[in-house]
Amino acid sequence: GESVGLHLPTLSVQEGDNSIINCAYSNSASDYFIWYKQESGKGPQFIIDIRSNMDKRQGQRVTVLLNKTVKHLSLQIAATQPGDSAVYFCAEIPPYNTDKLIFGTGTRLQVFP
Amino acid sequence: DAGVIQSPRHEVTEMGQEVTLRCKPISGHDYLFWYRQTMMRGLELLIYFNNNVPIDDSGMPEDRFSAKMPNASFSTLKIQPSEPRDSAVYFCASSGRGVDIQYFGAGTRLSVL
Questions:
Q1: A105–B104 C-beta distance less than 8 A
Q2: Residue B16 CB: number of other CB atoms within 10 A?
Q3: Minimal Cα distance from A43: which residue of B?
Q4: pLDDT (mean) for B64-74
Q5: With an 8 Å Cβ cutoff, is A43 touching chain B?
Q6: 3-state SS assignment for residue B108
Q7: What are the φ/ψ torsions at residue B86 (nearest 5 degrees)?
Q8: Antiparallel, parallel or unpaired: β B31-38 and A102-103
């Protein structure tokens, strides 16, 4: 079935460095993508979204890049802070059901001093 | 708005008992989603509602699971009888419309002994 592929690595970065979290999606017709952050003991929290008519979108310290040619999303976090430590999920809305989000498996980001 | 509110936060029960999880969506949101999260399977969509009507329950694992939304401000997910393999974190989320950001509650951690 369709899925958002997100290998589950643990990304360890030093405080102050930039982080890049990657996500491969499978459906080339998906139109909308969202990044969520999930801290321990909490529900997923919206970070940033992007539609397929864009290739880049910036928020506060975060940037999402969309490469439709290779069906790849990335989330860049500038000047990573200890509070950024969490599991990050990408999610896509598939064309066959625009009510649903299909979540990837997540990447754990660890920030060390 | 207080966000999506779930109760209880933690539930410990014995195999065979009935479990009821509760959710209050964000006021004005038309969509409500129930998810289950486990280490093995990640985030799984169980069922979702639009304007209090169940739209897709294909993710409900079996007949032991049922969900209702009697009004726009309340939904329940019931497991009867519960089994140890139902142990997971259950999230409720709501969105203003289908193709939109979903906002998650803090989740209910269920342990079935």
A1: no
A2: 10
A3: B106
A4: 97
A5: yes
A6: strand
A7: -80, -5
A8: unpaired
pLDDT at A5: 38
Which positions ≥6 away from B66 have C-beta within 8 Å? B60, B77, B78, B80
Residue with tokens 């017709």: A29
Q: Where are the beta strands (DSSP E) in chain B?
A: 5-7, 10-13, 19-24, 31-38, 42-50, 53-56, 65-71, 74-79, 88-95, 103-104, 108-112
Candidate from A66-75, A102-111, B1-10, B93-102 with smallest mean pLDDT: B93-102
> Minimal Cα–Cα distance from A112 to chain B, Å?
24
Q: How far is CA B48 from CA A8, A67, B35, B66, in A?
A: 27, 30, 9, 12
Residue with tokens 């969202």: A34
Q: Which residue blocks in B23-95 are alpha helix, DSSP H?
A: none
Q: Which residues of chain A have pLDDT under 50?
A: 1-7
Structure tokens at B52: 């209090």
CB contact under 8 A, B99 and A100: no
> Quick one: which of B51, B95, B98 has its CA closest to A97?
B98
Question: To 5 degrees, how large is the angle CA A28–CA A34–CA A40?
Answer: 130
Residues B20, B108 contacting (CB under 8 angstroms): no
